[in-house]
Amino acid sequence: MSRFRFTAGPWNVHEGADAFGPEVRASIPLEEKVAKFAELGLSGVQFHDDDAVPGLNEMTEGEIRAEAGKIRALLDRYNLAAEFVAPRLWMDPHTVDGGFTSNSAEDREFALWRAYRSIDIARVLGCNKIVLWLAREGTLCAESKNPVENVRRLIDAVNAMLRYDDRIEVLIEPKPNEPIDRSFCPTTGHVMAISAATVDPARVGCVLESAHAILAGLDPANEMAFALAFSKLGSVHLNDQNGMKFDQDKSFGAENLRQAFNQVKVLCENNYGSRGEFVGLDVKVMRTQRAEACYQHIANSIRVVEMLEKKVERFDYDYQAKCVAARDYEALEGYVLRLLLGDV
Ligand code: XUL
Ligand code: MN
After folding, report:
1. Nearest of 217, 140, 142, 141 to residue 174 by alpha carbon
2. Which residue, by CA, sits nearest to atom 4 of ligand 1?
3. Residue 185 belongs to a domain with what CATH number?
4. Tens digits of per-residue pLDDT, 19-60?
5. What CA–CA distances, in Å, run from 267 to 1, 179, 257, 342?
6. Rounded to whole angstroms, how far apart are CA atoms 46 and 329?
7. pTM
8. Number of domains in the chain
9. Pocket of ligand 1, candidates 18, 114, 173, 223: which has the most ligand atoms within 8 Å of its Cβ, to mutate?
């Protein structure tokens, strides 16, 4: 049994298309995914705006709220919370060149419209967190956008959202690249700086995804720690990643168990979750996986978190203190490896 409350999004059980191949599994209806999430022991669901309200571009604000109401009823039936709503700006024809930082004023307006609608949906779903994964807020061609002006545009967009609703919290999920080449907000440090520059820094935090930190060449546990030091770790997306390549969203711990251990350790040591924060699992089904076994990556990830929580409970802080006092870090490192390998 975990100390954490877990969430996942509908996109985590996807059809398996990648940049070089089409879908390999049939789409699963949202209700079926929600039912399965409940069965797996999740406490909530994460949504993009159009996961909750497909086709919202073509709908009035009233219609959008009514559709969101149906999702609220669905969640209630399974006793699940909504963790957050995130505007999916990267798929839309209006935002080919980005949303809040598009060179087109009309597209920037559209991006804000979607952000406001995400807030409306979140209200109906009973959650106050809006996640901004700034997928295309950067450049493919470095000279195509003014980087200074566009960082200011990001701050303006967050301010507009904070002003639209005085209860919402905006959580920025940084990622250094993919689908764009250069992001305007690649790391936790950048998120903290943007937060500090907004009209209400207390309501602007970070979602740290393990894979995104690794893609930036950074340590996910230390990135979490950085946000925790500012009391701004609003959510985490646990997963794993084999080096600095395309975003893999592997099962948590599948590549680097020690790195996974240190993420769980920093969360446990800082009482993550005590202010209602969830542990999101942004893990993807492998493309090769057959439809009848396409939820295992979520179950495996939860299991790994639980097993690592036990390792954290067994972590010998007295021994650590002795090693630190003697500056014998080889001994400490050897101990950590033995702990993880089940030899202590
Ligand atoms: C993309 C990613 C997204 C966000 C939500 O890399 O992690 O799924 O978590 O928009
Ligand atoms: Mn994510």
Report:
1. 217
2. 133
3. 3.20.20.150
4. 999 999 999 999 999 999 999 999 999 999 999 999 999 999
5. 16, 29, 15, 22
6. 40
7. 0.98
8. 1
9. 173
